[in-house]
Automatic annotation (TrEMBL):
Residues 103-251 form the BioF2-like acetyltransferase domain. InterPro entries: Acyl_CoA_acyltransferase, BioF2-like_GNAT_dom. SUPFAM superfamilies: Acyl-CoA N-acyltransferases (Nat) (SSF55729). Keywords: Transferase. This is GNAT family N-acetyltransferase. The keyword Transferase applies. GO terms for molecular function: transferase activity. Gene3D superfamilies: 3.40.630.30.
Length: 389
């Protein structure tokens, strides 16, 4: 047996399998989740190597198999997880009031109203049923949006994008069996925000979230959260977890934190196994120490700042100039923002809809005569010039 790393959450949530090194599994928030393993000889194969089991959340209670005399287990705290615990929560608006001030709640309501006013918006949770056509369409858009969003964030190798085939092969059966769900915000027939969830009875784990960056002005990620809180309350969900990662939005939206841990199993009668375990244990404990004190975040911020200075992103600079609605301009031709040629204008057209409270169906976009860097965008009530630099 070589060194082995086991993803605990993936094994349990997706593969429906309790790793061999554990005898029993239960969940703090539901009595209807219970795994049992028969005794096995998995530990006998460790020999000169180690086994690392990562990402064990504290709301899942595990009991280990009986350890042989030569095998030692070390438990290492690693991440903090963030969640919404719905105990005592009676309504979405009541929960938002407990987490946000008047100004923030107003901005959230405005985002919802302007999104629904500007576009033909609908919301759908795929849980327990989904057609093959819907599944194929949603996942195709999902990974396309995830890749675009990763480029925007500067993530070169997104692990989830690389594992597209794995998710595609496993998620449909989980959705049909109510062990996973896809929450989708649609503009017409087009998904613009997609969230992949994993379910354990009345615990929901948000695994991957992404959205169409052309709709960034509308904060569709927050609208997604509001609608999913609605769904959770309507379906008696006890815990909605956003997993680990101390992002600012999680700290604002969540009312509950919990620890994750890593387990390391090694052969205490093998010098090689002991050495490998010491390296892993030291590395994980050091990273946990640095993360808890904010040093890792600071390091990444400095690294990203240096990277941006050395390799500045080449991006369009677009300014919007409001003009009198009755002013006549020399126009060249009508522009289709949904064509590949003019797709770079889509985000700015949608920003115009938000800023001027217009509707997608009512706007027109024109190129200008004698200036290829200017475009006129016109709605029912307002018009403006987009200056491309």
């Amino acid at each position: 047996m070589e060194n082995k790393t086991v993803d605990f959450l993936e094994s349990v949530y997706i593969l429906n399998n309790l790793p061999d090194f554990y005898r029993e599994l239960s969940c703090t928030y539901t009595p209807h989740f219970d795994y049992k393993n028969v005794d096995n000889d998995s530990f006998s194969h460790i020999k000169n190597n180690i086994v690392v089991v990562k990402d064990i959340p504290s709301y899942l209670n595990v009991k280990e198999q009986s350890l042989p005399k030569n095998v030692k287990q070390v438990k290492i705290p690693y991440y903090s997880g963030y969640a919404i615990n719905f105990e005592g929560v009676e309504s979405t608006q009541g929960y938002l009031k407990s987490r946000f001030g008047n100004s923030s709640r107003y901005k959230l309501r405005r985002s919802v109203k302007r999104l629904e006013n500007a576009f033909n918006i609908s919301y759908k949770m795929y849980y327990g049923e989904i057609s093959q056509k819907e599944y194929d369409t949603i996942l195709e858009v999902f990974f396309k949006l995830l890749e675009i969003r990763s480029v925007e964030k500067g993530i070169i190798k997104n692990r989830n994008v690389k594992r597209k085939d794995f998710y595609y092969a496993n998620m449909k059966s989980l959705i049909l069996n109510k062990r996973a769900s896809l929450f989708v915000i649609y503009n017409g027939d087009t998904p613009i925000d997609i969230c992949l969830n994993l379910h354990v009875d009345n615990v929901v784990c948000q695994l991957i979230r992404t959205y169409d960056i052309n709709y960034s002005k509308y904060n569709t990620g927050y609208i997604d959260l509001i609608k999913q809180i609605d769904w959770c309350l309507a379906n008696n969900i006890h815990l909605l977890t956003f997993m680990y990662g101390a992002f600012y939005w999680k700290k604002r939206w969540c009312n509950h934190t919990y620890p994750y841990r890593y387990d390391i199993f090694y052969n205490k009668k093998s010098i090689k196994s002991i050495s490998k375990s010491l390296i892993q244990i030291t590395n994980h404990k050091l990273r946990h120490y640095l993360r808890e004190r904010g040093y890792i975040d600071r390091f990444h911020n400095i690294k990203n700042s240096i990277k941006e200075k050395l390799h500045p992103k080449e991006s369009l600079v677009v300014t919007t100039e409001n003009i009198d609605y009755d002013k006549e301009l020399e126009l060249k031709e009508l522009v289709d923002i949904y064509s590949d040629k003019y797709s770079f204008l889509r985000r700015y057209a949608f920003d115009f809809l938000f800023n001027y409270n217009e509707k997608e169906k009512d706007i027109s976009l024109y190129s200008m005569k004698n200036n290829s860097n200017k475009y006129l965008i016109k709605g029912i009530k307002s018009k403006a010039i987009l200056n491309i630099q």
